[in-house]
From TrEMBL:
Family, similarity comment: Belongs to the SLC41A transporter family.
Protein name: Magnesium transporter MgtE
One Pfam family matching this protein: CBS
Location within or outside the cell: Cell membrane; Membrane
Highest classification ranks of the organism: Bacteria, Fusobacteriati, Fusobacteriota, Fusobacteriia, Fusobacteriales
PANTHER family: MAGNESIUM TRANSPORTER MGTE
Amino acid sequence: MVKRLLDERRFLELKDHLKEMNSPDIANMLEEMDKEDLLIVFRLLEKDRAADVFSYMEVERQQYLVENIREGEVENVINSLFLDDVVDFLEEMPANVVKRVLKLTPTERRSNINKLLKYPEDSAGSLMTVEFMALKKSMTVREALDVIRSVGRESVSINTCFITDRTKKLEGVLSLKDIVLAKEDEVVEELMERFPVTVKTVDDQEDVIKAFKKYDLDLVAVVDVEEKMVGVITVDDVIDALEEENTEDIQKMNAVEPMETEYKKTGIFSLAKHRIVWLFVLMISATLTGRVIGRYEEVLENAVILAAFIPMLMDTGGNAGSQASSLIIRGLALGEIEKKDLPGIIFKEMRVGVLVGLGLATANFLRLAFFEKIDPMVAMVVCSTLVFTVTTAKTIGGTLPIIAKTLKLDPAIMAAPLITTIVDTISLLIYFYFATTFLKLV
């Protein structure tokens, strides 16, 4: 309908139609439009709606708009956004766009933007906004409601009000529900909840995510080193941070360096660059497997049948290790597992490995001895290797992510590709040791 109204130049009808649409839907629609149509539709939006739609758009389209609309329009959009959205936008923009935006921003707002831009990337300070509802503990409920009515539109949320003293030190928190339901002459200090949950400006965004999950929050106060309140983080920003963290972990777990851009918007050279480093590392480490096979070449010549089981043993070991590492990495990310749990995890994974290994080995021995008519001693070598390989793989898979965490590395790097490479070498060493011991081949 929008495309048809655009083609027929029925702009008044289009403007009315846009009023009935949600801002995220309009933003998604603008992503698919030609740039000329994008400008027309954006200019038909009401001022407040335009800023809201702008906050949902992709960075490339935001940049195009800022570079192609009038300064008055840019000023309206930027000054209507909450500060955290402005900062997210500016962090992705080239210097000329940042300069243009800051030039159109009032002095006090520009100062707050510059302050937020200086916080470390992925820190609580970089996620927060300074537009929150602050009340004094000496206020009555009537006075608090007057403040909320007068400045509430400038706050990111009025559902949670923060109580601060003259030095901006956080003293308590109070919900709008409690304010509305209280008597007008009651004092805020008597109603507020003391010792609210807070995060520090320098805390990593992973710690912020954990705080939201642990305390079931939709808004959290951010304080500086002096415990003075400087901003708040909303649940929508945490969801964005969580998506970013999960995406990064998934990429690392599959031996891909983290990428900032979406797959469809990333060029082939950039994709290759982010993949080749880990592939090179894994390729070099995989030469250990080749060296092991080369060292036991005489064993394979004397019992060629042994070579047929190498892929099965290596794959099973790699898969077993990946199962364990995936669970431990996820547990570390959710805060369910800590570094001190390492001894218990080693003991548990060893027992799990023995149980799983014995189950797989029993089924495999029956298949080899009775269905494929393999020499029972060869079948015993293969199945014994299977038990030790699975046990070793699960122990290694459960251990390495915690060791990485202890060394202040990302546990996600100790995932399937690296675990598989390590376990492959170990499983072959075990296999050939059993072969030379039980079959007396050399």
